[in-house]
Amino acid sequence: MYEKEPLFSSKNMKLLKGPLGKDNPITVQVLGICSALAITVNLKPSVVMAIAVVAVLTVSNVVISLLRKYIPPRIRIIVQLTVIASMVILVDLILKAFAYDISKQLSVFVGLIITNCIIMGRLEAFAMANKPWQSFLDGVGNAGGYGIILVIVAFFRELLGSGTLWDYPVFGKLGIYNSGYSDNGLMILPPMALITVGIIIWVQRSKNRDLIETH
Amino acid sequence: MKQFSNIYVVIFATIMVVIVATILSFVSMQLKPKQIKNEEIEQMKNILASVNINSNAKNAEERFNKYIVYSYVINIKGEKIEDVNAFSVDMKKEVSKIQKINILNNTIKETKKSPFNNFLASVIKFKEKNKAAIKSEILNIEGTRRLPVYICKKGKNTYYVFALRGKGLWGPIWGYISLVDDFNTVYGIYFGHDSETPGLGAEISESEFQAMFQGKKLFENSKFVSVKVIKGGAEPGDLHGVDAISGGTVTSKGVENMLFDCLSGYIQFINKQMD
């Protein structure tokens, strides 16, 4: 009976695209900032972190959505946390086995995906009340919106802070150091992540005037 | 909203927990061997780095087997302990042993200061009695220390690699130091850290910092002085000092203490080798 609506109807696509732009969890809702500060020093761990969050949020969203009619409301938060936590542990175990170097760089922050407010928020606000397919799109969209900001911030921090991209010495190869430039050490410290996110928010709001709060 | 009975809630929670636990323990068991392997390869990479050999995850094992010809574990007296794998030494436990010994040593020192105070004489008498007990406890703990030694052959030269572990500002720091076969000159060093500040304390894992240790001497006239990390920069030609990291004072100090504490455990081994 759910199949009446096409899979990629405009309403469904909005679930996917909204969080990437106008409804972005980091720049508009300002959620999940803590991990955005901690792991965006280099591009590689940021991309892995983004993929990990997409996996965790999408799967948890679908699982909760499938179970939504059977979850007793009194223990729903515990159920959600259990699903998130087990997904995060799975991701952590897989990273440790197959991408040891990156899992070392991400260290505690993989475990801290559990406390990422975006994930809990989506489960409680969306998956508990919507069908699995919509929840899937919502999960991909929101985690993707988080991931995109992560990658943008990491791009600038790695380029300006270490002069590399994906560990490839861009500035070194271009010979920029010879003209007297040196890496900006401030970029690799956490405050600059906050400032970079701030600049992204500023750019986004000056393009999208209706996002500006009036009070 | 639909109401659920208490029994339903309890059963739901139980089933959920059982399912989750089964999945997680199954995956964990499946991936365990691979994870342990990864950790060993990481250790091999670090040891190779201390003898100035580059390696990556793919070729670490092959190069380790080629260059590290021999590894064993010794005790504080420098005697070899049979049947213990150098990789199996838990450096975390070794660090806590060193810390205990340092604390006990400090309590003995305090009793030395107090005899000037008559009022505390009785307390001192009590403490003096304890001093022997504390000393024997120190010996006890020292007796349980396990120190890994790796021997590296590169061409005609032999290098001895010792393990290091200590504490930095935010978490543990560790490393390996390799000595030329005069047991005095540092050939190479490697430092790793868990969570030191990027750009400040984290610089200890950069090759610029580690390169400063090459050629430094551990002994001065057969007295152990270790290598000091000097704030404000070491004098040129200083054989026992390297520059500290600006803004990374606590981590630099941690490196210095780690070197002293860990290497002093090897002194008797070194003396034996020199005879």
Helix content range of chain B:
40-55%
* SS-derived structural category of chain B: alpha+beta
**Shape call of chain A:** globular
Number of domains of chain A: 1
Radius of gyration of chain A: 19 Å
Description:
The complex is a heterodimer of chains A (215) and B (275). Chain A has helices at 10-17, 33-38, 43-67, 76-98, 100-106, 108-111, 117-125, 132-162, 170-174, 190-207. Chain A has one domain. Chain A has ten helices and no strands. The mean pLDDT of chain A is 86. By secondary structure, chain A is an all-alpha fold. Chain A is globular. Chain A starts with 9 loop residues before the first helix and ends in an 8-residue tail after the last helix. With 275 residues, chain B is α+β, with helices and mostly antiparallel strands. Chain B folds into two domains: 1-86 and 146-275, no CATH class; 90-143. Chain B contains seven helices and ten strands. In chain B, the strands form three sheets. In chain B, strands 2-1-3-4-5-6 form a six-stranded antiparallel β-sheet. Chains A and B meet through α4 and α5 of A and α1 of B.
Topology:
The complex is a heterodimer of chains A (215) and B (275).
Chain A: H1 10-17, H2 33-38, H3 43-67, H4 76-98, H5 100-106, H6 108-111, H7 117-125, H8 132-162, H9 170-174, H10 190-207
Chain B: H1 6-50, H2 60-67, E1 68-74, E2 80-81, H3 91-113, H4 121-143, E3 147-154, E4 157-167, E5 172-180, E6 186-193, H5 207-211, E7 219-220, E8 223-224, E9 228-230, E10 241-243, H6 249-264, H7 267-274
Parallel strand pairs in B: 9-10
Antiparallel strand pairs in B: 1-2, 1-3, 3-4, 4-5, 5-6, 7-8
Helix pairs in contact in B: 1-2, 3-4
